[in-house]
Amino acid sequence: MSKITTELLLERAVPRSTRLRKIETLNLSKLQLKTGDLDPRLFSRLRHLQKLDLSDNLLDKFPNSLTLPDLRVLNCNNNKLEDVTALKQFPLLEELTYENNVYLTLNDDYKVMFLLENLRLLNGKDITKLANHVRRVNSRKLTSKVTAHWEKFFRDQLPEKHTAEQVKSIKKKFLKSVQTNVVYGPSSLSEFTRWRVKMIAEEFLSYSLGLELNSDTEPEEKMDENEEESTESPREAAEDVAQVVYIYDPLVTVTPSKRKRNHSKSGGGNKRSKSQANTEEEEEAEDVSAEPLHFLQCHSKGNSHEDFKTQLWSCVFEPVLDSGARKDPIVSSSKTVATCGGESVCLIDCETGTVLKKYKVATEEFFSVAWTTLTMVISDSRKKAHNILAAAGRRGIVKLIHVAADFCYGEIKAHKKPIATVCFSPTQETHLFTASYDKRIALWDIGIPDCDYNFKASQLLVLEAVSIPLRIALVPTCPEQYLLAGCEGGCFAWNIKLDKGQKSRPFEAIFQFPDDESMTTSHRVDGLAFLNDDVVVSKSSKPGCIYLWSWSRSFDVKGKGCQRTVSAVILAELEWSTTDMSYLTLSTCPAKEYVFCGDEKGSVWMYNLSTYTTAWSSPKGKRSERRISPTQILKWPELRLNGEQLPEILVNNVVSDPALSYLVVLTSVNITAIWKKS
């Protein structure tokens, strides 16, 4: 059993705390801790931790995915650390000490200076100037040498029309050659130089030449049908085999079972006899609206089958290119969905479960993806519509990917801190919004690439937030004028109309919501979406609470002045989990008038609100007095690893296609689940 428990963390907090999410300073020194004691699932709840003392322990490395997004100060003195590269997961780190770790050298100092852009103090010394030199001058020199090595020795070896095998072969030869032959700086830094040269070479192949994208991607393997464990009858099992695809790791199995509709309130189930339960489940099996179709583990770090720690964050269905079909929201998306988490972005065919493409950046952790359709000029001067995918995350950089060409054609260095979410304007296809941990939301014109993929991006607008923006949504009736954002400190609205002269703008309004007996603006809003042209769905830090409220009745577009406080006109509350776990976001399916939200137990809460929206649309529509219960709760099926049940599963995100044919569920354990409407 791990030495670290919730009780220990609360006790070692400075000052002592009653909630993990409230801890800002934590002292875990002198506890004889080993690497395995640092449980990412437990540490992921320390969302506001800023100072961590791990000195005088037995750590030999840092686990990946500790998820401490606000960590600023870290003390690792007197351990047994052998590697520092995992520290890149703490991008806001400003002060780091790791003295008396005998295996660390000057090369490791240079690695952390490169990886941590906000680092000011290393082992008590101000390294600002040296770090800038390492990140800029050193990188520029090495990039020049790597590029020259390719041009001189390898450029002519790659045929214009090349196969995947040819790409794989030349990539292997180039990486080996460049690490051997490119030298720079003193010999004492040779290990750091080789490390950076390999990184630069891989980026060069990927970004400049497009050789990494999908060059070695293979479809995820499926378990053999006979390897499933089933508690159902042979006939039922045979029926389910055609519906359920399994995680490709042969050690992982799923026990499929039909899930009945949940009519009771959360946590209020009554005890029943086994025979009663079986009878009820048989009677209601036909009412199940969705069946589990695929469980994929396609975002693993280093393609490891053992990676059940990578968090998956965002997914969005690819739009259909047929302009006629795009007018109808029911047919405006394909069966292809883009998902992101860890170092990769994947494109998945929801029907077959095939991973069509995979894009990786070794130093990135992707948080958000978004689609747009650009009309581009192709080689013979004809214009053609192409889908472009934007992906962004911890590095604050937006990657622009022309999916059909398997090519990442550019990047925008949008922010110096991580990007939480991105979205495109529905009316201006080149306009991209990026919301960052720097407490700013930027509007970019990404331009349209020419036939050689030359493009010019420009920043049009900066929206100043008072706290970190987590979710953004453009108002459907006026997407070129107003933007809503759910932030760490509340829900805000900005005027984004470009004919106004002001390029940097404060928020125009902050919304207040009920809080026990009063109204408050101070709460985390980690879920935000429009159900239709007027109804906003938002999830706050108040446990068990999802609000539906009216945009038009809450916000007076003719109101004067900035930074107004306005009360959200609540239409209804949705009953949801009583957890205080944050960042489990919600989504909507406007065409079908559904709301979806996952919980801390792997379940998906579904709300069909079609019977309520007509009443809400009237000017004097009354608030629903009682909380609306979920129409259905999809329970997480039983997944096992080596016979053991998988650890705690959080549903970070769940998204449906416009026709509500598929549900894509993203989890905290590196599993993408795809459900299909029965």
From TrEMBL:
Q: Where in the cell is it found?
A: Chromosome, Centromere, Kinetochore; Chromosome, Telomere; Cytoplasm, Cytoskeleton, Microtubule organizing center, Centrosome; Nucleus
Family that this chain belongs to = Belongs to the LRWD1 family.
Q: Which UniProt keywords apply?
A: Centromere, Chromatin regulator, Chromosome, Cytoplasm, Cytoskeleton, DNA replication, Kinetochore, Leucine-rich repeat, Nucleus, Repeat, Telomere, WD repeat
User: Pfam families, alphabetically?
Assistant: LRR_LRWD1, WD_LRWD1
Protein name listed in UniProt: Leucine-rich repeat and WD repeat-containing protein 1
- Kindly list the GO molecular function terms attached to this UniProt entry: chromatin binding
A single GO CC term for this protein reads: centrosome
Which residue intervals correspond to the WD repeats?
Answer: 412-446
GO-annotated biological processes:
chromatin organization; DNA replication; establishment of protein localization to chromatin
Q: Where is the signal peptide?
A: none
What are the boundaries of the region Disordered? 215-237, 257-289
